[in-house]
């Protein structure tokens, strides 16, 4: 009797499992029919704000350090739809690299929120004066200081001057940076490496160290990190390394200063339209800048600056400390270190063969993943790619993605 009940239970279980499998196949068939009839979607740039932001960047190259006044497409920094509400009322702020780009946008918004702002910059005097004009337009004081943050003595003199002029230092934004691409690690000279390290890492340390004697409880430091510090960038090895260091520096210093009531955070931008990239990349690449981002376009500085206000203001973020806030348009292209794409040979001009950990021939030159079109170049084998056939009509490919500079 017992064995009969057991047999019946097993039979019932097998029957139920078979029904479940059949039901799942039926659901699968519905989706596969829809997939087969779906037309490929063309990737278009995403707009989410009131203002429509530029999508196409000009093919323009500049000599370093780059000048905002000379850009064919002026970066949008004014944030005209942003209404200040006293979040930094009475504060004294220092923003390095504030002559242009993200730094200028942050300086203007800080002034709109009630802060006096010291504009530290290298030698872009015309750009810096324009930033000062916008700060004063907001009814606040601007202080221009030209110099090199790689020099610890300059950093101390500059901060002392700010403290003397404004009476205190409440906020430091470390934003000044250096970026120069190199196709291969062998192309990265010692001088190039040191320029990047000393500007992007030592400069941040020197400025923070100089400010701390003037900072009291409630003060804050906001560092500018980068998407490259999170995911790396193959032609910006040194820059990526320094931005990773900035993220670690942010967390370590946040823990160190917690007992003193001074918060430290960072913003990690994705691609942003500033003089930074035209002063690095060839004009042809500049014209394509930001198209690989999740939104299909680079950000404008005014889309980043509110994040700095949030982290700087104790009204907004008194319990936020030691974070790296990504502002990169979404967790898509820049936010993944690998891409798994299904390539359909029916649309390709080439056949393929899957080899161990590499592709020997290209099945398809373009692949749709969601709404995004990824181009896979025909020069194979592709280093770092893994391929495996998933079914008779497709090939699964995993490849690292290119990550563009965030700032």
Question: Mind sketching the topology for me?
Answer:
Layout: H1 2-37, E1 92-96, H2 101-112, E2 116-121, H3 125-137, E3 142-146, H4 152-166, E4 171-174, H5 190-211, E5 220-224, H6 227-231, H7 237-257, E6 263-269, H8 283-286, H9 305-312, H10 314-317, E7 324-327, E8 339-343, E9 354-355, E10 358-359, E11 366-369, E12 372-375, E13 386-391, E14 394-399
Parallel strand pairs: 1-2, 1-4, 2-3, 4-5, 5-6, 6-7
Antiparallel strand pairs: 8-14, 9-10, 11-12, 13-14
Helix pairs in contact: 2-3, 2-9, 4-5, 5-7
Relevant terms:
Rossmann fold; three-stranded antiparallel sheet; 10 helices; 407 residues; alpha/beta
The residue-averaged pLDDT reads 80
Total strand segments: 14
Instruction: Count the domains.
Output: 2
Residue stretches low in confidence (pLDDT < 50, at least 5 long) are 333-404
Largest sheet, spatial ordering of strands: 3-2-1-4-5-6-7
Distance between the termini: 76 Å
What is the CATH H-level superfamily of the largest domain? NAD(P)-binding Rossmann-like Domain
The name of the CATH architecture of the largest domain is 3-Layer(aba) Sandwich
> What pattern of helices and strands is seen along the backbone?
HEHEHEHEHEHHEHHHEEEEEEEE
In the CATH scheme, the class of the largest domain would be: Alpha Beta
Number of helices: 10
- Tell the overall outline: globular
The SS-based structural class is: alpha/beta
Helix content: 25-40%
| DSSP strand content | 15-25%
- Main beta sheet strand tally, sense and closure: 7 strands, parallel
- Please compute the radius of gyration using only Cα atoms: 26 Å
CATH topology name of the largest domain: Rossmann fold
């Amino acid at each position: 009797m017992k064995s009969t009940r057991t047999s019946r239970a097993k039979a019932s279980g097998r029957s139920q499992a078979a029904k479940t499998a059949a039901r799942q196949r039926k659901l699968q068939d519905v989706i596969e029919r829809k997939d087969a009839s779906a037309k490929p979607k063309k990737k278009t740039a995403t707009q989410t704000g009131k203002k429509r932001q530029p999508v196409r960047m000009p093919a323009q190259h500049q000599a370093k350090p780059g000048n905002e006044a000379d850009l064919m497409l002026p970066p949008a920094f004014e944030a005209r739809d942003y209404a200040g509400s006293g979040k930094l009322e009475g504060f004294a702020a220092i923003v390095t690299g504030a002559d242009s780009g993200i730094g200028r946008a942050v300086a203007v918004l800080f002034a709109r929120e009630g802060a006096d702002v010291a504009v530290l910059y290298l030698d872009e005097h015309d750009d810096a004066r324009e930033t000062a004009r916008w700060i004063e337009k907001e009814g606040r004081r601007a202080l221009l200081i030209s110099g090199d943050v790689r020099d610890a003595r300059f950093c101390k003199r500059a901060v002392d001057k700010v403290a003397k002029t404004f009476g205190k230092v409440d906020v430091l934004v470390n934003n000044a940076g250096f970026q120069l691409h190199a196709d291969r690690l062998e192309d990265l000279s010692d001088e190039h490496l040191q320029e990047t390290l000393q500007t992007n890492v030592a400069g941040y340390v020197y400025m923070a160290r100089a400010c701390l004697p003037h900072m009291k409880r409630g003060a804050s430091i906001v560092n500018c990190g980068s998407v490259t510090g999170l995911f790396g960038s193959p032609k910006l090895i040194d820059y990526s390394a320094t931005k990773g260091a900035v993220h670690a520096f942010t967390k370590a210093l946040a823990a160190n200063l917690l007992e003193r009531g001074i918060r430290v955070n960072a913003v990690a931008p994705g691609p942003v339209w500033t003089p930074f990239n035209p002063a690095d990349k060839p004009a042809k690449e500049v014209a394509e800048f930001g198209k690989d981002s999740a939104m299909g376009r680079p950000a404008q500085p005014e889309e980043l600056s509110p994040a700095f206000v949030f982290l700087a203001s104790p009204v907004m973020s008194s319990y936020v400390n030691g974070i790296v806030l990504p502002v990169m348009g979404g967790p898509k292209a820049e936010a993944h270190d690998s891409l798994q794409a299904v390539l359909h040979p029916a649309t390709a001009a080439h056949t393929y063969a899957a080899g161990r950990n590499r592709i020997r021939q290209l099945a398809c030159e373009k692949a749709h993943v969601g709404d995004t079109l990824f181009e896979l170049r025909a020069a194979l084998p592709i280093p770092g790619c893994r391929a495996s056939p998933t079914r008779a009509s497709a090939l699964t490919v995993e490849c690292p993605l290119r990550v563009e500079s965030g700032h």
